[in-house]
Design goal:
This is Integrase catalytic domain-containing protein. This protein is of the alpha+beta class. It is 39% helix and 17% strand.
Protein backbone atom coordinates (compact mmCIF):
# COMPACT_ATOMS: atom_id res chain seq x y z
CA UNK A 1 0.00 0.00 0.00
CA UNK A 2 1.29 3.46 -0.86
CA UNK A 3 2.10 6.07 1.76
CA UNK A 4 -0.86 8.17 3.06
CA UNK A 5 -0.29 11.31 5.03
CA UNK A 6 -2.27 11.35 8.30
CA UNK A 7 -4.07 14.67 8.85
CA UNK A 8 -6.38 15.97 11.56
CA UNK A 9 -9.59 14.94 9.78
CA UNK A 10 -8.49 11.32 9.35
CA UNK A 11 -7.26 11.14 12.96
CA UNK A 12 -10.61 12.54 14.11
CA UNK A 13 -12.47 9.89 12.12
CA UNK A 14 -10.33 7.16 13.74
CA UNK A 15 -11.05 8.65 17.17
CA UNK A 16 -14.82 8.72 16.63
CA UNK A 17 -14.82 5.10 15.39
CA UNK A 18 -12.84 4.11 18.48
CA UNK A 19 -15.15 5.81 20.98
CA UNK A 20 -18.05 4.10 19.16
CA UNK A 21 -16.34 0.83 20.20
CA UNK A 22 -15.48 -0.25 16.63
CA UNK A 23 -12.77 -2.88 16.42
CA UNK A 24 -9.29 -2.18 15.13
CA UNK A 25 -9.92 -4.49 12.15
CA UNK A 26 -13.04 -2.57 11.15
CA UNK A 27 -11.27 0.79 11.46
CA UNK A 28 -8.50 -0.66 9.28
CA UNK A 29 -11.03 -1.70 6.59
CA UNK A 30 -12.89 1.62 6.65
CA UNK A 31 -9.98 4.07 6.91
CA UNK A 32 -7.30 2.06 5.14
CA UNK A 33 -4.53 2.50 7.71
CA UNK A 34 -2.35 -0.28 9.08
CA UNK A 35 -3.54 -1.97 12.28
CA UNK A 36 -0.29 -1.15 14.06
CA UNK A 37 -0.72 2.52 13.22
CA UNK A 38 -4.31 2.51 14.51
CA UNK A 39 -3.29 0.66 17.71
CA UNK A 40 -0.48 3.15 18.38
CA UNK A 41 -2.89 6.09 18.13
CA UNK A 42 -5.41 4.37 20.40
CA UNK A 43 -2.63 4.07 22.98
CA UNK A 44 -1.96 7.80 22.57
CA UNK A 45 -5.67 8.52 23.04
CA UNK A 46 -5.64 6.54 26.27
CA UNK A 47 -2.48 8.28 27.46
CA UNK A 48 -4.28 11.62 27.03
CA UNK A 49 -7.12 10.38 29.22
CA UNK A 50 -9.55 9.75 26.37
CA UNK A 51 -11.84 6.72 26.50
CA UNK A 52 -14.91 5.34 24.72
CA UNK A 53 -18.10 7.14 25.68
CA UNK A 54 -16.28 10.33 26.73
CA UNK A 55 -17.89 13.57 25.52
CA UNK A 56 -15.55 16.51 24.66
CA UNK A 57 -16.16 19.88 23.00
CA UNK A 58 -14.90 19.95 19.41
CA UNK A 59 -12.45 22.79 20.16
CA UNK A 60 -10.74 20.82 22.96
CA UNK A 61 -10.73 17.63 20.89
CA UNK A 62 -9.11 19.45 17.96
CA UNK A 63 -6.33 20.74 20.21
CA UNK A 64 -5.62 17.27 21.57
CA UNK A 65 -5.59 15.66 18.12
CA UNK A 66 -3.34 18.39 16.73
CA UNK A 67 -0.77 17.52 19.40
CA UNK A 68 -0.90 13.85 18.38
CA UNK A 69 -0.30 14.43 14.67
CA UNK A 70 3.19 13.34 13.47
CA UNK A 71 5.76 16.10 13.14
CA UNK A 72 7.17 14.75 9.87
CA UNK A 73 7.68 17.98 7.96
CA UNK A 74 11.17 18.34 6.53
CA UNK A 75 13.47 21.10 7.60
CA UNK A 76 13.98 23.91 5.11
CA UNK A 77 17.39 25.16 6.27
CA UNK A 78 19.25 23.97 3.17
CA UNK A 79 16.55 25.13 0.77
CA UNK A 80 16.68 28.56 2.37
CA UNK A 81 20.28 28.84 1.18
CA UNK A 82 18.95 28.87 -2.40
CA UNK A 83 16.32 31.55 -1.80
CA UNK A 84 18.66 34.55 -2.39
CA UNK A 85 19.46 33.18 -5.87
CA UNK A 86 15.85 32.63 -6.97
CA UNK A 87 15.91 35.40 -9.59
CA UNK A 88 19.24 34.23 -10.99
CA UNK A 89 17.89 30.69 -11.27
CA UNK A 90 14.85 31.97 -13.13
CA UNK A 91 17.03 34.01 -15.51
CA UNK A 92 19.18 30.95 -16.23
CA UNK A 93 16.35 28.46 -16.75
CA UNK A 94 13.19 30.46 -17.47
CA UNK A 95 13.89 34.14 -18.26
CA UNK A 96 10.20 34.82 -19.00
CA UNK A 97 9.32 34.03 -15.36
CA UNK A 98 11.94 36.40 -13.96
CA UNK A 99 10.72 39.62 -12.33
CA UNK A 100 13.76 41.61 -13.42
CA UNK A 101 13.81 44.26 -16.13
CA UNK A 102 14.60 42.43 -19.41
CA UNK A 103 15.87 45.69 -20.96
CA UNK A 104 18.52 46.16 -18.28
CA UNK A 105 21.96 44.76 -19.26
CA UNK A 106 22.42 43.44 -15.72
CA UNK A 107 19.07 41.66 -15.85
CA UNK A 108 19.31 40.48 -19.44
CA UNK A 109 19.07 36.66 -19.35
CA UNK A 110 22.03 34.55 -20.35
CA UNK A 111 21.66 31.57 -22.66
CA UNK A 112 18.99 29.27 -21.26
CA UNK A 113 20.25 26.16 -19.47
CA UNK A 114 18.59 23.17 -17.87
CA UNK A 115 17.80 23.05 -14.13
CA UNK A 116 20.68 20.67 -13.32
CA UNK A 117 23.16 22.92 -15.14
CA UNK A 118 21.80 25.92 -13.22
CA UNK A 119 22.39 23.97 -9.99
CA UNK A 120 26.02 23.27 -10.96
CA UNK A 121 26.53 26.94 -11.88
CA UNK A 122 25.28 28.15 -8.48
CA UNK A 123 27.27 25.56 -6.52
CA UNK A 124 30.55 26.38 -8.29
CA UNK A 125 29.95 30.13 -8.51
CA UNK A 126 28.87 30.73 -4.90
CA UNK A 127 30.42 27.65 -3.19
CA UNK A 128 27.05 26.48 -1.88
CA UNK A 129 26.87 23.29 0.17
CA UNK A 130 23.48 22.16 -1.11
CA UNK A 131 22.73 18.65 -2.37
CA UNK A 132 21.10 18.08 -5.74
CA UNK A 133 18.09 16.46 -4.00
CA UNK A 134 17.56 19.63 -1.96
CA UNK A 135 17.85 21.70 -5.13
CA UNK A 136 15.21 19.56 -6.84
CA UNK A 137 12.78 20.19 -3.98
CA UNK A 138 13.40 23.93 -4.26
CA UNK A 139 13.14 23.79 -8.07
CA UNK A 140 9.69 22.20 -7.81
CA UNK A 141 8.57 24.97 -5.47
CA UNK A 142 9.49 27.74 -7.91
CA UNK A 143 8.57 25.85 -11.09
CA UNK A 144 12.00 24.99 -12.54
CA UNK A 145 11.48 21.28 -13.14
CA UNK A 146 11.85 20.44 -16.82
CA UNK A 147 9.40 18.11 -18.53
CA UNK A 148 10.66 14.63 -19.23
CA UNK A 149 11.02 13.47 -22.82
CA UNK A 150 10.78 10.05 -24.33
CA UNK A 151 14.22 8.48 -24.70
CA UNK A 152 15.29 7.35 -28.19
CA UNK A 153 15.68 3.68 -29.06
CA UNK A 154 19.10 2.28 -28.09
CA UNK A 155 21.06 -0.06 -30.34
CA UNK A 156 23.90 -1.84 -28.55
CA UNK A 157 27.28 -2.51 -30.22
CA UNK A 158 30.20 -4.76 -29.23
CA UNK A 159 33.44 -3.14 -27.96
CA UNK A 160 35.55 -1.48 -30.64
CA UNK A 161 32.80 -1.66 -33.25
CA UNK A 162 31.33 1.82 -33.65
CA UNK A 163 31.78 5.52 -32.92
CA UNK A 164 28.83 7.86 -33.44
CA UNK A 165 29.64 11.43 -34.55
CA UNK A 166 27.57 14.58 -34.96
CA UNK A 167 27.64 18.38 -34.85
CA UNK A 168 25.42 20.66 -32.76
CA UNK A 169 25.08 24.40 -32.20
CA UNK A 170 25.86 25.31 -28.57
CA UNK A 171 25.86 29.12 -28.40
CA UNK A 172 28.03 32.14 -29.13
CA UNK A 173 31.47 33.23 -27.90
CA UNK A 174 33.62 36.32 -28.41
CA UNK A 175 36.54 35.47 -30.68
CA UNK A 176 39.71 36.78 -29.02
CA UNK A 177 41.30 37.38 -32.41
CA UNK A 178 38.79 39.94 -33.70
CA UNK A 179 36.62 40.73 -30.66
CA UNK A 180 33.41 39.67 -32.40
CA UNK A 181 30.79 37.25 -31.12
CA UNK A 182 30.75 34.10 -33.24
CA UNK A 183 28.53 31.07 -33.32
CA UNK A 184 30.06 28.00 -31.67
CA UNK A 185 29.44 24.38 -32.66
CA UNK A 186 30.23 21.21 -30.75
CA UNK A 187 31.88 18.34 -32.58
CA UNK A 188 30.65 15.42 -30.48
CA UNK A 189 31.54 11.73 -30.61
CA UNK A 190 30.68 8.76 -28.43
CA UNK A 191 31.87 5.16 -28.39
CA UNK A 192 28.72 3.07 -28.80
CA UNK A 193 29.81 0.35 -26.37
CA UNK A 194 31.44 2.17 -23.43
CA UNK A 195 29.63 5.51 -23.99
CA UNK A 196 32.88 7.45 -23.47
CA UNK A 197 32.33 10.87 -25.11
CA UNK A 198 34.57 13.32 -26.94
CA UNK A 199 33.63 17.00 -27.31
CA UNK A 200 35.45 19.76 -29.17
CA UNK A 201 34.04 23.27 -29.63
CA UNK A 202 34.69 24.90 -33.01
CA UNK A 203 33.74 28.07 -34.88
CA UNK A 204 33.17 26.35 -38.24
CA UNK A 205 31.82 23.15 -39.75
CA UNK A 206 33.88 23.22 -42.96
CA UNK A 207 35.72 20.19 -44.31
CA UNK A 208 39.08 21.08 -42.81
CA UNK A 209 37.63 21.70 -39.32
CA UNK A 210 35.61 18.46 -39.60
CA UNK A 211 38.69 16.36 -40.35
CA UNK A 212 40.85 18.11 -37.73
CA UNK A 213 38.20 17.28 -35.11
CA UNK A 214 38.11 13.66 -36.30
CA UNK A 215 41.89 13.43 -35.92
CA UNK A 216 41.69 14.94 -32.41
CA UNK A 217 38.97 12.39 -31.59
CA UNK A 218 40.99 9.30 -32.54
CA UNK A 219 44.02 10.70 -30.70
CA UNK A 220 41.86 11.28 -27.60
CA UNK A 221 40.70 7.64 -27.66
CA UNK A 222 44.19 6.38 -28.56
CA UNK A 223 42.74 4.28 -31.38
CA UNK A 224 39.88 3.98 -33.83
CA UNK A 225 36.80 1.76 -34.01
CA UNK A 226 35.83 -0.50 -36.90
CA UNK A 227 33.42 2.09 -38.31
CA UNK A 228 32.38 5.72 -37.82
CA UNK A 229 28.64 6.43 -37.92
CA UNK A 230 28.03 10.01 -39.09
CA UNK A 231 25.16 12.24 -40.06
CA UNK A 232 24.70 13.35 -43.68
CA UNK A 233 26.39 16.73 -43.18
CA UNK A 234 28.17 18.24 -46.19
CA UNK A 235 31.57 18.17 -44.49
CA UNK A 236 31.53 14.36 -44.55
CA UNK A 237 28.96 13.29 -47.16
CA UNK A 238 28.65 14.93 -50.56
CA UNK A 239 25.56 12.98 -51.64
CA UNK A 240 23.49 10.94 -49.16
CA UNK A 241 22.23 7.57 -50.34
CA UNK A 242 20.99 4.54 -48.43
CA UNK A 243 23.21 2.05 -50.30
CA UNK A 244 26.01 4.08 -51.89
CA UNK A 245 26.59 7.49 -50.24
CA UNK A 246 29.22 9.71 -51.83
CA UNK A 247 31.79 10.47 -49.13
CA UNK A 248 33.88 13.64 -49.12
CA UNK A 249 37.17 12.75 -50.83
CA UNK A 250 39.36 14.14 -48.03
CA UNK A 251 37.32 12.33 -45.39
CA UNK A 252 37.62 9.11 -47.39
CA UNK A 253 41.42 9.56 -47.32
CA UNK A 254 41.22 10.05 -43.55
CA UNK A 255 39.28 6.78 -43.17
CA UNK A 256 41.79 4.96 -45.39
CA UNK A 257 44.73 6.35 -43.41
CA UNK A 258 43.28 5.16 -40.07
CA UNK A 259 41.93 1.86 -41.51
CA UNK A 260 38.31 2.50 -40.58
CA UNK A 261 35.02 2.64 -42.49
CA UNK A 262 32.45 5.42 -42.85
CA UNK A 263 28.81 4.55 -42.30
CA UNK A 264 26.04 7.11 -42.73
CA UNK A 265 22.71 7.32 -40.91
CA UNK A 266 19.49 7.41 -42.87
CA UNK A 267 18.32 10.90 -43.76
CA UNK A 268 15.92 12.20 -41.11
CA UNK A 269 16.38 9.12 -38.87
CA UNK A 270 17.93 10.42 -35.64
CA UNK A 271 17.28 7.08 -33.92
CA UNK A 272 20.01 5.51 -36.08
CA UNK A 273 22.51 7.38 -33.90
CA UNK A 274 20.52 7.90 -30.72
CA UNK A 275 23.55 7.78 -28.41
CA UNK A 276 25.21 10.82 -29.99
CA UNK A 277 21.88 12.65 -30.27
CA UNK A 278 21.64 12.45 -26.48
CA UNK A 279 25.14 13.90 -26.11
CA UNK A 280 24.45 17.08 -28.13
CA UNK A 281 22.17 18.69 -25.46
CA UNK A 282 24.72 17.74 -22.79
CA UNK A 283 27.50 19.41 -24.83
CA UNK A 284 25.32 22.50 -25.14
CA UNK A 285 24.71 22.59 -21.38
CA UNK A 286 28.43 22.05 -20.71
CA UNK A 287 29.37 24.98 -22.98
CA UNK A 288 26.86 27.33 -21.34
CA UNK A 289 27.89 26.20 -17.87
CA UNK A 290 31.60 26.80 -18.55
CA UNK A 291 30.83 30.13 -20.22
CA UNK A 292 28.73 31.26 -17.24
CA UNK A 293 31.51 30.38 -14.77
CA UNK A 294 34.46 31.52 -16.95
CA UNK A 295 33.11 34.25 -19.28
CA UNK A 296 36.60 35.38 -20.41
CA UNK A 297 37.89 31.97 -21.47
CA UNK A 298 38.98 31.37 -25.05
CA UNK A 299 37.82 28.47 -27.21
CA UNK A 300 41.04 26.54 -26.51
CA UNK A 301 40.54 26.87 -22.75
CA UNK A 302 36.95 25.68 -23.06
CA UNK A 303 38.10 22.68 -25.10
CA UNK A 304 40.67 21.68 -22.50
CA UNK A 305 38.00 21.78 -19.81
CA UNK A 306 35.62 19.83 -22.06
CA UNK A 307 38.14 16.99 -22.34
CA UNK A 308 38.45 16.90 -18.54
CA UNK A 309 34.65 16.69 -18.34
CA UNK A 310 34.67 13.75 -20.79
CA UNK A 311 37.31 11.84 -18.81
CA UNK A 312 36.36 12.70 -15.23
CA UNK A 313 32.90 14.14 -14.59
CA UNK A 314 31.02 12.19 -17.28
CA UNK A 315 33.57 9.42 -17.69
CA UNK A 316 33.67 8.47 -13.99
CA UNK A 317 29.92 8.74 -13.31
CA UNK A 318 27.86 5.54 -13.46
CA UNK A 319 25.98 5.40 -16.76
CA UNK A 320 22.24 4.92 -16.47
CA UNK A 321 22.04 2.27 -19.21
CA UNK A 322 25.20 0.20 -18.75
CA UNK A 323 25.39 0.60 -14.97
CA UNK A 324 29.17 1.15 -15.31
CA UNK A 325 31.19 4.36 -15.55
CA UNK A 326 32.10 4.97 -19.25
CA UNK A 327 35.80 5.46 -18.49
CA UNK A 328 35.96 2.21 -16.50
CA UNK A 329 34.17 0.25 -19.23
CA UNK A 330 36.46 1.81 -21.84
CA UNK A 331 39.63 0.90 -19.95
CA UNK A 332 38.47 -2.63 -19.08
CA UNK A 333 36.85 -3.76 -22.34
CA UNK A 334 37.06 -1.38 -25.29
CA UNK A 335 40.45 0.32 -25.29
CA UNK A 336 42.39 -2.84 -26.12
CA UNK A 337 40.06 -3.62 -29.06
CA UNK A 338 40.53 -0.30 -30.86
CA UNK A 339 42.69 -0.26 -33.99
CA UNK A 340 46.08 1.26 -33.27
CA UNK A 341 46.94 4.65 -34.76
CA UNK A 342 49.46 4.82 -37.61
CA UNK A 343 52.90 6.29 -36.76
CA UNK A 344 52.33 9.31 -39.04
CA UNK A 345 49.57 11.78 -38.26
CA UNK A 346 47.12 12.36 -41.09
CA UNK A 347 47.65 15.72 -42.80
CA UNK A 348 44.38 17.33 -43.74
CA UNK A 349 44.21 17.99 -47.51
CA UNK A 350 42.48 20.95 -49.10
CA UNK A 351 40.37 20.23 -52.15
CA UNK A 352 39.02 22.88 -54.50
CA UNK A 353 37.39 22.73 -57.94
CA UNK A 354 39.29 24.91 -60.42
CA UNK A 355 38.78 25.98 -64.03
CA UNK A 356 41.55 26.63 -66.56
CA UNK A 357 41.18 30.08 -68.16
CA UNK A 358 41.94 30.92 -71.80
CA UNK A 359 45.47 31.98 -70.79
CA UNK A 360 45.95 28.35 -69.54
CA UNK A 361 46.18 29.35 -65.86
CA UNK A 362 43.93 28.49 -62.92
CA UNK A 363 43.88 30.14 -59.47
CA UNK A 364 44.33 28.33 -56.16
CA UNK A 365 44.79 30.20 -52.85
CA UNK A 366 45.59 33.49 -54.65
CA UNK A 367 48.31 31.90 -56.80
CA UNK A 368 48.21 31.08 -60.50
CA UNK A 369 49.28 27.74 -61.96
CA UNK A 370 49.69 26.80 -65.61
CA UNK A 371 48.18 23.74 -67.36
CA UNK A 372 48.91 22.03 -70.69
CA UNK A 373 47.58 23.49 -73.94
CA UNK A 374 44.72 20.98 -74.28
CA UNK A 375 43.28 21.93 -70.86
CA UNK A 376 41.88 25.36 -71.78
CA UNK A 377 38.35 25.90 -70.49
CA UNK A 378 38.22 22.56 -68.63
CA UNK A 379 37.44 21.99 -64.94
CA UNK A 380 39.71 20.04 -62.60
CA UNK A 381 40.11 19.20 -58.91
CA UNK A 382 43.09 20.74 -57.08
CA UNK A 383 44.43 19.08 -53.92
CA UNK A 384 47.00 20.71 -51.63
CA UNK A 385 48.69 18.71 -48.88
CA UNK A 386 52.20 18.34 -47.53
CA UNK A 387 53.48 21.29 -49.55
CA UNK A 388 52.44 19.71 -52.87
CA UNK A 389 49.60 20.86 -55.14
CA UNK A 390 48.19 18.09 -57.31
CA UNK A 391 45.65 18.55 -60.08
CA UNK A 392 43.21 15.71 -60.98
CA UNK A 393 40.56 15.29 -63.62
CA UNK A 394 36.98 14.22 -62.83
CA UNK A 395 38.04 10.55 -62.50
CA UNK A 396 40.88 11.53 -60.11
CA UNK A 397 43.60 10.85 -62.69
CA UNK A 398 46.68 12.94 -61.85
CA UNK A 399 47.31 15.60 -64.49
CA UNK A 400 50.00 17.76 -62.95
CA UNK A 401 51.69 18.59 -59.63
CA UNK A 402 53.52 21.66 -58.28
CA UNK A 403 55.55 22.31 -55.13
CA UNK A 404 53.86 25.04 -53.08
CA UNK A 405 56.27 28.00 -52.83
CA UNK A 406 56.08 31.77 -52.36
CA UNK A 407 56.04 32.23 -56.15
CA UNK A 408 52.67 33.64 -57.23
CA UNK A 409 52.82 32.51 -60.89
CA UNK A 410 53.96 28.95 -61.56
CA UNK A 411 54.50 26.93 -64.75
CA UNK A 412 56.69 24.08 -65.96
CA UNK A 413 59.51 24.38 -68.54
CA UNK A 414 58.12 23.99 -72.05
CA UNK A 415 54.62 25.16 -71.16
CA UNK A 416 55.04 28.41 -73.16
CA UNK A 417 57.32 29.78 -75.90
CA UNK A 418 60.60 31.18 -74.62
CA UNK A 419 59.54 34.70 -75.49
CA UNK A 420 56.47 34.45 -73.27
CA UNK A 421 58.39 32.77 -70.45
CA UNK A 422 60.93 35.62 -70.54
CA UNK A 423 58.11 38.15 -70.52
CA UNK A 424 56.48 36.49 -67.49
CA UNK A 425 59.83 36.36 -65.69
CA UNK A 426 60.58 40.05 -66.36
CA UNK A 427 63.60 39.08 -68.55
CA UNK A 428 62.17 40.06 -71.94
CA UNK A 429 64.96 42.65 -72.70
CA UNK A 430 67.63 39.98 -72.19
CA UNK A 431 65.67 37.65 -74.46
CA UNK A 432 65.59 40.31 -77.23
CA UNK A 433 69.34 40.89 -76.92
CA UNK A 434 70.05 37.18 -77.20
CA UNK A 435 67.91 37.00 -80.35
CA UNK A 436 69.66 40.06 -81.82
CA UNK A 437 73.09 38.46 -81.35
CA UNK A 438 72.04 35.68 -83.68
CA UNK A 439 71.36 38.29 -86.40
CA UNK A 440 74.71 40.09 -86.13
CA UNK A 441 76.55 42.94 -84.31
CA UNK A 442 74.48 45.67 -85.94
CA UNK A 443 71.20 44.18 -84.70
CA UNK A 444 72.65 43.72 -81.24
CA UNK A 445 73.74 47.41 -81.10
CA UNK A 446 70.30 48.52 -82.27
CA UNK A 447 68.43 46.52 -79.62
CA UNK A 448 70.91 47.47 -76.91
CA UNK A 449 70.38 51.15 -77.72
CA UNK A 450 66.65 50.82 -77.28
Amino acid sequence: MGYRRLDKHILKAIFHRWIESQSISRIHREEGFDRKTIRSYIELFEAKGLRPGLQMPDEDLDCVLQELLPKNTRGRNKRELLAPYREELLRLVNPDASSGDPESPAERPAEVVRPKTAYLILVEKYRLEVSYETFKLYAREIGLTAQSKRAPTRLESPPGQETQIDYGTVGTLVDHHNGKARRVYAFAAKLSCSRLPFIQFTYTQNKESWMESNIAMVEFYGGVTECLLIDNLKSGVLKPDLWDPQINRGYAEFAEHYRTFIDTARVGKATDKAKIERLIPQARELFRRLKAIHPTWSLDELNRQALLWCRQEYGRAVHGTTGIAPMSLFEEQEQSLLKSLPPVRFEVPRYKPVKVHPDRFFTFEHKRYAMPENCRGQSFIARESGGILRVFDASYRLIRSYPVTEQRVCWLPGDFPKSREALMQGAYPRYLLSRARTLGPAAERLIDGI
